Amino acid sequence: MINIEQISKKYKSAESYSVKDLDLFIAEKEIFGLLGPNGAGKTTLISMLCSLIKPTSGAFTINGLNYKNNKNQLKQLIGIVPQEYALYPTLTAFENLKYFGSMYGLKGKSLDDKINDKLDQLGLLKFAHKKIETFSGGMKRRINLIASLLHNPNVLFLDEPTVGVDVQSKNVIIDFLQNLNKEGATIIYTSHHLNEAESFCTRVAIVDQGQLIAKGKPAELIKSQEGAQNLEDVFLGLTGKGLRDSA
Ligand SMILES: Nc1ncnc2c1ncn2[C@@H]1O[C@H](COP(=O)(O)OP(=O)(O)OP(=O)(O)O)[C@@H](O)[C@H]1O
Predict the structure, then answer these.
(1) Whose CA is nearest to atom 11 of ligand 1?
(2) CB 3.0–4.6 Å: which of 20, 43, 68, 138 could bond 210 by disulfide?
(3) What's the pTM?
């Protein structure tokens, strides 16, 4: 249902491509992990799929919709959880979520009920009327997650949703996403947590230097690489052990 064909992105100020000629198909109801070293192009790819930036060339469709002709329909279909918090620190959690809901035309009691329900599911109901500036990183990430799905998106994109959060918050987020998936949502997420991806994802793709270098079910990838015990072994085998710093 997500069909990506020969997609490439070269930022105006960049000398080389951040994503190059990438083909990928993601089926409905998958939990799909995009993995890769720093600077591999994961955020760039996800940002194109969310129509936040335009591809330099190539194309993609989500449920047959394309970003050139169906931008508004795509906006209703997808939810986006960015890496950075997009919350107003001096407003309460509830006020923030009311604001995000209103951007999708949601309002009234049905919106309030939905916000309370999601806050409850993510263990935050008792903090509903506290200001965001008093929240920990893990709490803000969970609010960010709720903000992205008040309009019931079919497809949820998450850019490193569990980075910098404690184990408890991480488990709550993963369980919550697994439940969403059971209810029918397709989930595409980027991560550096390979153990997490190994157990959480139905399939993963490993991206390096803007190109897809492997894809498949975690167990199949592990089996296909000699000596690999886990996804981390596969990842290091394919991407090498060198640092990927750049500036
Ligand atoms: N706005 C931009 N302008 C120019 N170059 C960019 C821009 N955004 C990203 N890049 C470059 O594109 C490449 C891919 O970056 P991207 O953020 O997509 O990687 P990533 O896999 O998400 O990395 P990380 O794991 O560190 O988040 C990098 O070389 C980065 O420096």
Answers:
(1) 18
(2) 20
(3) 0.93
